[in-house]
Amino acid sequence: MLVDPRPTLDVSPTWPTKGDTVTLKCAVSGSSSGWRFHFYRVIVPIEEVLPSEDTDVFSHELKLSENSTELLSDSSREAGGSYTFSTVGPEHTGFYVCRAQRLNSNSYTRYSNLRHLWVKDPSPPASLSIYPNTSPFFEDWESVSPTCEVQGNSSGWTLRRFSGFANRNKASHCAFKHDAVTWDERPCNLILTFEDSGHYWCQSESGQYSNAVNISVHGQPTPHLRVAPNNWGTEGSSLTLTCELRSSTTGWSFLWYKVSPPKKGFPVEFNSVTRFAYSVELVADTSVGAGGSYPLKPASPEHSGVYVCRGQRGDPAYYSQYSPPQLVWVTGEFRPISTRPSPSSWLRISPNRTEFVPSQSLSLSCKVLGNAAEWTLRRYTSAELSDCPFNSRSGTWAESTCNISSLDTFDSGVYWCQSTSGERSNAVNITVHEKGDFKSRLEVSPNHWVTEGSSVTFSCSVRVPFPGVRFHWYRAVPVSEGLPLVRSPFGETKYSVELLSDSSRGAGGSYILNSSAPEHSGLYVCRAEIEELATYTEYSRPELLTVTGPSPSVWLDVIPSRSQHFVSEPLTLACKAPDAAAVWSVRRFTLSKELSDCPFDKKSQMLGPSTCNISSLTLSASGVYWCQSESGERSNAVNITVHSGSVILESPVHPVKEGEQLTLRCLGRKSVKSNLSATFYKDGLHVANQTSGTITVPNISKKDEGSYVCEIEEERKRRSSGSWVSVRVAPGNSQGPHETEPRVGYHKYKEIL
Q1: In angstroms, what is the C-alpha Rg of the chain?
Q2: In the predicted structure, residue 653 carries a pLDDT above the cut 70
Q3: Number of neighbouring beta carbons within 10 Å of residue 403
Q4: Selected residue with higher pLDDT from 575 and 371
Q5: Are residues 204 and 231 in the same domain?
Q6: Residue 513 confidence class, pLDDT cut points 50, 70, 90
């Protein structure tokens, strides 16, 4: 009777030398106690006990029985399950299994996994060799010929193998898909695939073994082609092409080819990665580079072209894949104009530049002396070698001109004219930049919140340092008719931009406010004009500048008066000005980079000329808010953050004057107890524990300024987000100008922008 679990057999060492000690260990998953272990040797041809090829890959049940195994003498072992050969010899070579039996029971487990033991015999009765004898490592689809040299007059030797491919033990005769083939009948030739990896040996009818050879089959290798010192040479210089097979270098010789667009009479290759189809033509002197280096010395214009290489070894020959192509271009040496030969063709491009941006157009014309019908425009890009027309955007090849109506990045490459006889014009290297190369970046120094009279510098830069760049400066304003719109990558309108009247002051990349004033407050944007490419970069991300005076004429009140709010809560923002009849807009700049005036959406409305009410806050309402008049006058700015969590920190929305009292309170949603025991932190350091959920700091000073967080404990800890508390230094204090500036919401502003 069979019982689970199935035992596991381990053999150590697996490849011993004659005279070594070998241990077989049998174990049952979980615990080996309560079992008696039995060890067996397989006595029938190994393929007879392995699963059939159509067996499910997860099924490894061996076809073993008492008739196919031989119990090792004195093999019964209890706890520990070890069986030791004190001194092994060739007669111990073979395959072994084990199984376990319950103590005081006739119940056995299934047989274990199959393990081999191979004793290295210095004088085996037969010797197996593999041709070509390159290494234990072979490539997919490579041809090998195993040979068994038998000592003496014994006969009936057969090639066999044992493989663990795809987690399945396999063994078979040569040629592995037919009946047994003995050496007396015909030689054994194998075309290797991944499934052929494994151990090979010769075995006689009487059970004698030869040495074993391990064969490991890898994918068809791809060589790497390099050109030194570079791909562009001049006539008379020395260039060297090098072909390398990094995974395997033994026994290879190399072949060299020139590449052309697919044409009749020549092999056509297809690169499944680049989708690049091309024809290859063996160069006449390919044997020069058989060792892996193909010299062009001295180089001449006739050497120009696209090259590939591949390796070969063995007989019959086994080939590697072709290398990725490499362009080599040799220009004629410099000579006085009077002594230069007249070129047969010259490539001209319009517009006359080599750098472009996507969607621009390009016209390429071959100026030919002679029969223009014998010439075509050819290009080599990272994806292909082809003749015009290249694709649906390149129009047709007519009157020696090729027009590309809308360039893309994959049009970057080398272009030239070529005749049917192989003559070439000059080559032009065209670069189509990626969109990411045209991003502008705006920085503000020394910071975004300054006091009146401070110097502020805006710096604009482009990811790629193009020559001939002029910078332009803008204010970001709510969407307005007649002004350029800035949209998100998904097409959503964010804001409009208005060119600054003195934008030309910052044409070099820096726009400086030597003495900033409150009217300079606002959102700034820049972009670059690249004159050489006749294009503009994208607008930069907006940067907010707030310039505060000693006493702003208008103040933004927030009700409830705190900087953190829960989702779905109402919020009122009121502009308080000396002239109650004045009209002020409540403006905001959100996390999603949207600049707009109230009403912002269907959940907001103006209550009177200067008050905005949001009936139900959403996460998208987080941002910086301020009041602004039609003339550009601004109030203080406040930072509002909306949270979906359970706890927020109630902190002052405006700066606290030095010497006043600061009160912080930990607030919970309705689902959280109202009487909270809270822990407070400042700048990450513990401040206090309060059972009331509130802390008070009397007589506040500048040292109390910082980022505060509170944390409560119910079933689990719940923590608020941080809130910045700003302290306004009293007049006459010796603090410097940047120490007195109100940094309302400054740390949160960094998150917004």
Answers
A1: 41
A2: yes
A3: 18
A4: 575
A5: no
A6: very high
Express each pLDDT in 80-99 by its tens digit: 688 999 999 988 998 999 98
Please list, in sequence order, all residues whose beta carbon lies within 8 angstroms of the beta carbon of residue 647, skipping any fewer than 6 positions away: 666, 667, 668, 669, 672, 710, 711, 712, 718, 719, 720
- Considering the domain boundaries, does residue 39 fall inside one? yes
Residue range 51-85, pLDDT digits in tens: 765 544 334 577 888 889 999 887 766 656 889 99
Concatenating the DSSP letter of every residue in 682-741 gives ETTEEEEEETTSEEEESS--GGG-EEEEEEEESSSEEEPPPEEE-EEPPTT----HHHHS
Number of structural domains (the chain) is: 6
Could you tell me which residues are beta bridge partners of residue 311? 254
DSSP 89-126: -GGG-EEEEEEEEETTS--EEPP---EEE-PBPSS-SE
Q: Is there a contact between 246 and 336 (Cβ–Cβ < 8 Å)?
A: no
Angle at 555 between CA 454 and CA 481, to 5 degrees: 80
Last residue of a domain, one of 301, 331, 361: 331
Domain span at 496: 435-548
Q: Report how far apart, in Å, the C-alpha atoms of 122 and of each of 16, 125, 126, 128, 744 are.
A: 12, 10, 11, 13, 86
C-alpha torsion angle, residues 602, 603, 608, 611 (rounded to 10): -130
- Domain check: are 43 and 145 in the same one? no
Q: Tell me whether residue 751 is in a domain.
A: no
Which of 334, 271, 341 is CA-nearest to residue 306?
Answer: 271
Residues 477 and 417 in one domain: no
What pLDDT score does 56 carry?
42
Question: What CATH number corresponds to the domain at position 298?
Answer: 2.60.40.10
pLDDT digits (tens, 9 = 90+) for 441-466: 999 998 887 878 889 999 999 988 78
Residue 746: its H or E element: helix 746-752
526 in the same domain as 577: no
What φ, ψ does residue 749 adopt, rounded to 5°?
-60, -35
**Which of 27-41, 434-448, 469-483, 635-649 is predicted with the least confidence, judged by mean pLDDT?**
27-41
62 and 167 both lie in a single domain: no
User: What is the rounded distance in angstroms from the CA atom of residue 637 to the CA atom of residue 654?
Assistant: 9
pLDDT of residue 738: 38
Q: 21: which 2 tokens?
A: 């000690």
Residue 673 CB contacts under 8 Å (≥ 6 apart), including other chains: 714
